[in-house]
Design brief:
By secondary structure, this protein is mainly α. The chain has 2 helices and no strands.
Length: 31
């Protein structure tokens, strides 16, 4: 697994949000 750079993490967040707010909601509820 590559190191998590701030930029990569940001891209991941954007991808998650773009994937669908529903998924993000589920993740936040689970946490």
């Amino acid at each position: 697994m590559p190191q998590t750079d701030p930029e990569t993490r940001m891209k991941g967040y954007l991808k998650k949000i773009a994937a669908g707010p529903r998924l993000s909601k589920d993740l936040t509820e689970e946490e």
